[in-house]
Design brief:
Layout lengths: L35 H4 L10 H9 L8 H33 L12 H11 L12 H11 L2 E6 L6 H12 L3 E8 L2 E6 L2 H10 L2 E3 L2 E7 L13 E9 L8 H8 L4 E5 L1 H5 L7 E7 L7 E5 L5 E8 L40 E6 L11 E3 L4 H25 L6 E5 L9 E2 L9 H8 L3 E2 L2 E3 L4 E2 L9 E2 L2 E5 L1 H6 L3 E5 L10 E5 L22 H9 L7 H23 L3 H31 L13 H13 L4 E2 L5 E2 L2 H16 L11 H4 L7 H8 L4 H9 L14 H6 L1 H18 L8 E8 L10 E7 L1 H21 L13 H12 L10 E9 L1 H4 L2 H10 L4 H12 L2 E6 L2 E7 L11 H20 L17 E4 L2 E7 L2 H18 L2 E2 L5 E5 L3 H11 L2 E2 L4 E3 L2 E3 L10 H19 L6
């Protein structure tokens, strides 16, 4: 964040008179703030009370402190307070002494500069004939050494030649001269003071895994090695909410580990939002916990995972650095004498690595410290040739026997496996090799990218070049295997651990209806006998009881005829194949002898692509280990279950605190429910409508907790149809719903290729079919009135509106972005964090009332929303049971429409903001008066590229957040600017907390470009299609075995 100071520091005051604030007339009226949390504390002016308005504006009158100045300011305030207290006490004592006629000395402020000057003034020397050196005498020499640093390697004493080669290798032309001032202590002069400061601020360098201690030279600098008891190290905090990324909060949190020194520039400037990075000073002998806790603003304990980029290794025997007690040389009984020998033209080598993620270093291997560019080029060519030879060797080794290959392949399979601003992708033979050999990745976890080039800023590149791959035979032999890629630490590659689990403990297997049971000769009679038994109770209770009573009957049918249906099918297929092979062998022999043909060969056994895909999906979705809330990776199934249950109970089982109510003045910005709409919604449903809804549910959809999918009801409609219709109609008319009907199973689907945390899985709700039919019927009425009450800005799940409309509008808005002559415009692409899971129930109920739905209809909707109970299902078993207090279920037919209903509040807020005089529209949407665009939870905010307009949009967004519970994900939300000054863009980024991005970007799955779309923009899509086509073709070819 750029450092700025107000011209009126300390002069601005909050007026006592309660006058209505008219808003900020220009961007200069708004002070630069540290984060979105501060600026969004202000809501649209006309919606605020005067008191809240004054509090919000007061925040802008406070000048910001920089990360460096804030600590000095606090310390200076404490020193002034103590010093002034002493001064007042001394002054009072002096006055008392004078009043009594006693001679007294006047009080003196004890501030550090004053005391230092006094101490120097009263010092004297008894020596005579001394020569005094003045500042003028040393000025020239001080200026010469001012750009130098003093450094030494902690735990090692490298020769000058080695250290010089090491320094010039990593800092290149920034180094001017290098000299040794004492044994193991070096003085490195840089070409400028700026280069020196960049090196010192860039992070701590490691020489052969030992830290290099560096400090700037000054006239009082000690050039001897110090007895190091404390050292600075960089740490990273995982999954820390962005509101705690301020320096004051970070220093408090990490203060438990050591003395905070600074945050790195990337964290301070909010350029990357993966994790905050802080430099702290720690004791050599202290513990280094992987988890720390702090109490948040609501009094709740929050856990934070700590990653140490480097930890000191302290020998317990000699108390030395850089080795442990097992490797300590001082434990040797007999002292050895070492003789040095250096042959001619011998190059000094050293291993270079760094703990600083953004410091420029080479690739982390043993480097020859020589300057021969041609050798590097030759090595690259040789490396590419070696890789081609390796792929050929692998293709020659392929086999149908179990086969696993692991290591550094030094190549990637697809474009997404290498990222970085300067990263490029060129298709190689490696992908073809993996397809031909039928090698696929063993399920993996930990770090997705396994190598980085340890460069700084835009030069940094991450790649997935280390893999553990196996063929289908190996994967079938070890179906429960996982490759865990650890953090690279001091290396540029990540270590990997391949774990083969013997088996997974079988948990509670849920009942599931299978259509194959229809083929049983006993099915029709036994099902009919069970169903026709009388049950006393409501229509809903009767059908629930009959479904429960039918489960043992169906289980018995499965046990007697279908217990091992796959094994039985395989045995029968084997017998038939053996008979066929014998007959076919006779025929081939006859044809061979008759026609003299020698090219006819016996076919190999066929493999099923279908079964392979099922097994691959099962392996990918199986959860073998997970990182829990404490930051520990656990592979015990009970601990994995506990981690997931804890997460979802916290996510869904807690309600929003301090929520603002829906404002009727905002809802009046658009149409409401009419009498005709209300009558349409409350009309009774016919049996034909209920049957149509039942048969519209795809048969392949997963069943709910009762295990009965739509297959059962569709196959047995003549038997169960009438009672099913009566039960569903009774709920829709009375609004009474049994808890068994609204129970839900959450199945976990990985959101990313390498899921490590619980949050890396997407929860999909599997509802019971009876409930889904009821909500589908409600949706059939709602969707007819939504086009009339939902703003045109919303394109998702509305009849007559299509996703292509949003895509075309977005493409038109981004046109000409990046051109120098373009007018200032801004687009903000929002990503709402856990959108469906965090929507507040009270907010939805208030929205239904604000739309003026009938009370009976509101009760029906809220019964559907408020009564679900959840269980989790993963690894084939059901786990836990808990209730929710917020959120909409992904998998419930009514959830998308209710979500759109909630998002309408944002649309109407933005509509109100758009009519403010100080708001400026986007250049290409001014005629349409368009300042936002939505497709369900995908939101675009657009406006003129000035701070005030963007600030107003953020105010509206904050009001929506405080009311609905939906919060933008700052790590995934992005700002796109065109024609704006860099200073203004900087203020916008600081205010929003979002990252800046440039076109092209993806919107609704389609690449959006400011220019004509190029072939390179569609590379990933083409790769996905090509990969599937080639994989299936090679699988089919493999049915004939390797050549």
């Amino acid at each position: 964040m750029a450092k700025t100071r107000s011209k009126n520091v300390g002069k601005s005051q909050i007026p006592n008179k309660k006058t209505k604030k008219k808003g900020l007339n220009s961007s200069a009226d708004v002070r630069k703030t540290k984060s979105m949390e501060e600026i969004l504390g202000v809501e649209p002016v006309e919606l605020l009370d005067d008191e809240e308005d004054r509090v919000g504006v007061a925040a802008y009158d406070q000048p910001p402190l920089s990360p460096d100045s804030s600590l000095r300011f606090l310390k200076r305030q404490d020193d002034i307070a103590v010093d002034f207290g002493y001064f007042l006490a001394a002054d009072k004592e002096c006055q008392n002494s004078i009043s009594k006629g006693i001679q007294a000395s006047p009080p003196v402020l004890r501030a550090e500069p004053v005391m230092r000057n006094l101490e120097s003034a009263f010092k004297s020397s008894n020596k005579e004939g001394k020569v005094k050196i003045t500042m003028d005498d040393i000025e020239e020499e001080v200026a010469y050494w001012k750009s130098a640093i003093v450094c030494y390697v902690l735990g090692a004493n490298p020769p000058l030649a080695v250290l010089e080669g090491f320094a010039r290798r990593i800092w290149k032309d920034k180094v001017d001269k290098i000299g040794m001032v004492s044994y193991g202590v070096f003085l490195i002069i840089f070409t400028s003071i700026k280069d020196r400061d960049d090196i010192l601020a860039g992070g701590y360098i490691f020489f052969n895994k030992k830290p290099v201690i560096m400090k700037a030279w000054d006239r009082n600098c000690n050039v001897k090695k110090e007895d190091i008891r404390t050292i600075p190290i960089w740490i990273q905090l995982e999954d820390l909410e962005l509101k705690y990324w301020g320096q004051k909060s970070l220093f408090k949190i990490v203060g438990q580990l050591g003395k905070p020194i600074m945050v790195d520039e990337v964290t301070r400037e909010r350029d990357k939002l993966l994790f905050p990075r802080i430099l702290i000073e720690v004791s050599m002998e202290q513990e280094f916990p992987s988890l720390i806790y702090f109490e948040n603003e609501f009094g709740i304990d929050v856990s934070v995972v700590v990653n140490y980029e480097w930890k000191p290794i302290l020998c317990k025997h000699c108390k030395g650095m850089g080795h442990n007690s097992d490797d300590c040389r001082k434990k040797e009984a007999k002292k050895q004498e070492w003789v040095g020998w250096k042959p001619k033209n011998q190059n000094a080598t050293a291993e270079a690595s760094t703990s600083n993620q953004y410091t420029a270093l080479q690739n982390g291997e043993d480097y020859e410290l020589q300057r021969k560019e041609d050798r590097v080029t030759d090595e690259i060519r040789e490396e590419e040739e070696d890789r081609r030879l390796l792929w050929k060797e692998l293709e020659g080794l392929r086999t149908n026997e179990p086969w696993v290959v692991l290591g550094d392949f030094n190549d990637i399979v697809e474009k997404g496996e290498r990222i970085g601003k300067r990263a490029h992708f060129t298709p190689t033979a490696f992908r073809e090799c993996t397809i031909k050999c039928q090698l696929e990745d063993v399920k993996y976890g930990g770090s997705y990218f396994t190598w980085n080039n340890r460069q700084q800023g835009d030069d940094r590149i991450y790649s997935k070049i280390d893999r553990v791959m196996a063929n289908p035979s190996w994967l079938n032999m070890y179906p429960i295997a996982e490759a865990l890629f650890l953090q690279e630490g001091l290396f540029d590659h990540t270590p990997v651990i391949l774990t083969v689990y013997p088996s997974l403990p079988s948990g509670r297997k849920p009942f599931k209806y299978f259509r194959m049971w229809l083929s049983s000769p006993h099915y029709q009679k036994q099902v009919a006998d069970s169903w026709k038994g009388s049950v006393v109770g409501t229509k809903m209770y009767q059908i629930v009881t009959k479904l429960k009573r039918l489960k043992p009957v169906l289980t018995a049918i499965n046990k007697h005829g279908f217990a091992d249906v796959q094994g039985e099918e395989m045995r029968q297929e084997k017998e038939v194949r053996e008979q066929y092979a014998e007959k076919h062998k006779v025929l081939i022999s006859f044809l061979h002898q008759k026609s003299k043909l020698n090219w006819i060969k016996n076919g190999d056994s066929n493999t099923s692509v279908f079964h392979s895909s099922i097994k691959e999906r099962t392996r990918h979705n199986r959860i073998l280990s997970i990182v829990n809330a404490q930051g520990e990776r656990v592979d015990d199934q009970e601990k994995i279950t506990k981690a997931f249950l804890h997460y979802y109970k916290e996510l869904l089982g807690t309600s929003m605190i301090g929520r603002q109510r829906v404002k009727n003045s905002v809802m009046k910005e658009g149409p409401l429910i009419t009498t005709t709409h209300a009558e349409t919604l409350m009309t009774d449903f016919s049996k034909e409508e209920i049957k149509a809804a039942m048969f519209s549910i795809p048969r392949v959809k997963s069943p709910g907790p009762d295990g009965y999918g739509s297959y059962f009801f569709q196959d047995n409609w003549d038997l169960v149809g009438d009672e099913t219709c009566e039960a569903i109609a009774s709920f829709l008319k009375s609004g009474n719903l049994l808890k068994e009907i609204n129970s839900t199973v959450i199945t976990l689907i990985p959101k990313i290729k390498c899921p490590n945390k619980v949050s890396d899985f997407r929860p999909i709700s599997c509802c019971n079919v009876l409930y889904k039919v009821a909500t589908k019927l409600i949706c059939s009425r709602l969707k007819n009135i939504f086009p009339e009450i939902v703003s045109l800005n919303q394109g998702g799940f509305i009849k007559g509106r299509y996703i292509t409309h949003n895509i075309m509008i977005c493409q038109d808005l981004i046109r000409n972005y990046g051109r120098k002559e373009s007018k200032p415009n801004c687009m903000i692409k929002l990503d709402l964090q856990k959108a469906y899971d965090t929507m507040d129930w009270d907010f939805l109920e208030e929205m239904l009332h604000a739309f003026e739905f009938l009370e009976k209809f509101i009760r029906l909707i809220m019964t559907c929303i408020r009564t679900p109970r959840y269980s989790l299902i993963f690894n084939g078993s059901m786990h836990g049971f808990f209730e929710a207090k917020k959120g909409l279920r992904q998998g419930d037919p009514i959830s998308p429409l209710l979500f759109v209903l909630g998002m309408e509040y944002l649309s109407r807020i933005m509509s109100k903001i758009g009519r403010k005089e100080e708001f400026g529209y986007h250049e290409r949407s001014a005629e349409l008066k368009l300042n936002h665009l939505s497709f369900a939870d995908d939101v675009l905010l657009v406006c003129r590229g000035d701070f005030k307009s963007i600030y107003l949009l953020m105010q509206g967004l904050k009001l929506f957040t405080n009311t609905s519970g939906l919060t933008p994900n700052k790590g995934k939300s992005a700002v796109f600017c065109s024609g704006m000054e860099e200073r203004e863009i900087k203020r916008v980024l600081d205010m929003t907390g979002f990252s800046r991005q440039d076109a092209p970007f993806k919107y609704l799955g389609v690449p959006i470009c400011a220019r004509r779309i190029a072939a390179s923009d569609c590379v990933i899509l083409a790769q996905k299609m090509t990969k599937k086509i080639k994989y299936n073709s090679h699988v089919l070819e493999s049915n004939h075995g390797p050549p």
